[in-house]
Structure formats: structure tokens, C-alpha cells
Design brief:
The structure holds two protein chains of two kinds. Chain A is of the alpha/beta class. Chain A is 35% helix and 30% strand. In chain A, the strands form three sheets. A six-stranded mixed beta sheet of chain A has the order 6-9-10-3-11-12, sandwiched between helices. Chain A has a four-stranded antiparallel beta sheet with strand order 2-1-4-5, covered by helices on one side. In chain B, helix 2 packs antiparallel against helix 3. By secondary structure, chain B is mainly beta. Chain B starts with a strand and ends in a 15-residue tail after the last helix. Classes of the chains: A alpha/beta, B mainly beta.
Amino acid sequence: MNKILEIKGLRASIEGKEILKGIDFSVNEGEVHAIMGPNGSGKSTLSAVLAGRENFVVTAGEVIYLGENLLDLAPEERAHRGIFLGFQYPVEIPGVSNVNFMKTAINEKRKFANLPPLSAAEFLKMMREKMAVVEMDSSFSGRGVNVGFSGGEKKRNEIFQMAMLEPKLAILDETDSGLDVDALRIVATGVNKLKRPDNAFIIITHYQRLLNYIVPDIVHVLYDGKIIKTAGKELALEVENRGYDWLING
Amino acid sequence: MALQYKYNPAIPDVFRCRVPLPGTHQAYLSNGLLHEEVSYEDKLHLSASSPKGFDLKISPGAQIPDTLQIISVRETGQIVELQFSNSLDFGAGSDSNLLLCTHTLSLDEFVTLSELNINVQQGSRVNIVIMQNEHNGSSHKMNFKIKQAKDSYLRLNIVSLHGARLENNIDVDLEGEGGICELNGVYLVSGKQEILTFVNMKHLVPNCHSSQLFKGILDNESRAVFSGLINVAKGAQKTEAYQANHNLLLSRKAKVYAQPHLEINADDVKCSHGATSGRLDEFALFYMRSRGIGLKEAKLLQQLAFIYDVLEKVNNVPLRNRLQELVESRLRGEFEQCANCSINCC
């Protein structure tokens, strides 16, 4: 199996406060990793650091992505190389339609891969196909990005964007928070449809709920900036039943 | 609409809008002198006023869906300082649309004072868009004196794209009950440019509605002043008046002075005002970059998103799209070429 991501001794802080205190793990092609942990353990920080958010300072360690030093790259360069972050709180961009936003994003990525921009017909065909994946109404395409979307619609739009961008490594940051059962099912189905032997997912979640729909290969428990336990999918169920205390105190 | 032009072949085509908008009819005013009269049956008359400026009359009851575009330019001449006065009279029950573009056609220094005396008569509906696209040597002060009669409706949108010092003084007298006045503005300043907006919204009688939405983007060492007053006269009950001014500062040296004022002398009114200044949102930029959109483009998208709701108030869609393109090219910094021949923008 080919290694996609390797994180070694990663430490990161914000405004002088250390959040990640030495993270180590690797992600191979075809794998789904779940990262669980109580609030404030550093889950969202980890996803932000991997996607390149600049207000976090990496103080130690390295992250190798497809043989390249990921931390040297700007967020957009990471995206061009196949990293996708699904946001916990997607941003509203009034006046920029979903269509134009995605067209810009896709063509930037194609430019990096030395591919010509998609024709309008190719692009619209792709839009239609991918909107079907997340059962999204076509009326969304003309609307401003996330403007006036409900919480569930925003998350669905994240999965739609992921489907359009076909990432090599998708990181979903608490995509399940604030979703009702139907939305959760749609989001999970979308992820499952996009799973391939040559890509990988890191699913960050507070609850086990999402993992009923997306079965992880590996589960990590993050606490106080460190991974305190790594095991198979059964760990998620155990956390659901017993909480985190036995791991933290054990 | 079959508008009748007194077409003046002496005006070189370079001065005309190269890609006229559909349903739009142009007239040309150079250094305050109207070169072309326009009339449409007995509904619309545009003529020169003395000594300078134009006189626009919309007849009572006239329904004119098309837009009259007046292109007012300053061009090379000995005159640095120029003053002229225009009068606009919208007859009772009429419905009309006006686009006024101000340009400079040479890089000379210009100081312009133009007055717009606007009379919106009973029950009339008026849409006015002002597009200001001048150059770094141009200082232009526009004084708007607006009077609105009973049940009249005015929407005035000002898009200020370029100019060394642009000043818009807008005085509105809501003199008849049921009057509605909407003022909207977008201003973009960079370099050492200045834009000043003064609004005096006077609710003189009960049951009128006014709103003001002004948004600006400031770069480099530019400066913006917004001073807006909502004045509700004694007895002007059931007034609804709103005012908002929001600014996006792209540089640490750009400055905005915002002064919202309220003077309320009636007790049954709804009024609000608010002013903000802020920077680009780092989180939103990160969101766009995480999708592969470069930093420069992400910043541009955020700026366009910031002013989107103001441009959306222009209800003539082809015109709104044109203005959006102009704003975008201005924000991309592709605008300097227009300094010499502003009609390039069209």
C-alpha cells in the first residue's frame, strides 16, 4: 500500500499556546481514519494545520504528503495536490455563485496539473453528476456560496465540493455536527461513494454517530494534543459506550 | 423606445460608449455643455440649460422603461475649474430611469462642481444610477438637492470607481407623505484618493421611508469620509429611516471617518444607524484557498462579496452586470488605462 501522509512529532501552537503536543501517524491509500476526542483536544487544530491555516505555528515535527514536505506549501498549493478540508463552519460568500466558485477552484487545480480549463458543457455535466451524489437541488448552483443555506445544506455543499475536486486526501472536520439523521445519511453516502482504493479520508468527529455510516479502518483518540490510543473500528464503539475517561485516566 | 436624437456628428466616436447597454440611449455633455438634445414624443425632453448643464423633464404620467444615459465628460481645455447646474424634473405619476456617467478624457487637472436639482413629483418612480469614473487629477464635487413629493419613490445608486477627490453631498427633503427614498453607494479608493459622502436625509412629514447603504473598499493611503444625518422633524410620525456605512480597509494606512447622526423630534418612529470598518476575513480567505483558489483571487472574491449587496440594488440587470465587471476590473487594478479615455470602460 502506498503511503499518502506521514505525520512525525507534529507540534503546533496558536498565540503562544501549544495545542498539538507531538502527533504521529500515517495514512495509506484506501484507508479511512477516524480521529475522536473530547472538546478542546486539538482535533480541529490538526485539520487546520494539515490544510495550511496560517494562524497556527508549527513548532516541531514534519508532515510528508506524497513525498513532499507539506508544511512548506500554501493552502491553495495543498489543494492543488489533492488535499481537501471539509469545514465545520463553512463560510458564506455572497455574490459568488456556487457554479463560479467551483469553476474557479477546478480550473486552478487543472492549471496546476497542466490541463486545459474544462469547457462549459463538461463543467455543467460534472456539476450535475456530483450534485446527484449529495442529492442537492440544481437551484443551489446559481446561489451564492453557502448564502442562506441551512446547517445541513452547508455540510452537503462541502461534500459536493469534495466530490467536484476529487481529492487524494480528504479531511472532514466535524462534518456531522449539527446534522439531522437524513442529512447525516446523505453526507455519509456521499463519502462512501467517493471512496476509492487510491484515496484516503480522515474523519474528525466528536461522536461515534457518523461512524455508523462511514466505517473507519483505524480510530485514533486525541486528547490534550496527543494521540493516546489507536485501534481498529471497535475503539469507536467502546468510546461511545464508556466515554473518554477510561482512556484519559488509564 | 424611439428616442429622437439631435445627433451631433461633430462628437468623435471615441467619446461615445463603445458598447452601449441594451435599452439605453446616450446623450453627451462635455465640460458642462450639452451637445445633443434628446426627446421622446412628449414624454421626455433633455435640453441644455443656461449657461451650462442640462435640463431634464419627464412629463407627468410618462412611463419610460428604457434608460437615458448622460455621459458627462471633462476634456482638455483651458478651464481647470468648472461649475454647472443641472435640473431634473420627474412629473407626477411618471416612471423613468437615468444613468449619469462622469468621466475625464485627458490627464489634465480638473476641478468640477456640478449640481443636480432633482424634483421627484407626486406618485412618480425614479431610478438613478451615477457612475463616477474619473482620474487621479480630477476633483469632483456633486451636490444633490432632492425634493420628494407625496407617494414618490426614488432609488439613487452611486458607484464611485475612480477620482482624486470625489465628494457627494446629498440633501433629501421628504416633503410629502408616503415618500420613499433609497440611497445606495459603493466607493473604491486607492493610492491617495479621497471620497467624501455627506447625507442629510430630512423627514419633514409623517409616513415616509428612507434607507441608506454605503460600502467602501479602501487601499493604500486612501481616505473616506461618510457623514450621514437622519433628521426627523417634529410631527413626522411613523417615519422609518435606516442608515448603514461599512468599510473594508485593505491597508494599515487607509483611513475611514464615519459619522452617523440621528436627530429625532418625533416619538413614533423607527430609525437605526450603524457604521463599521474592518479588514479582510482571514478565515474566509483560508476557506477559499483550501479549495485551490489563490490568495490574490480569494482576496478579490471577498471584496466583491463585500459590496455585492449594494450593487444588487441596481435593478437594471445588464447595467448591474456591467457595473460588476467595472468594479471587478477596478479591484484587479486593471483600471489605470481608463484614466485617459474613460469611455474604454464601457
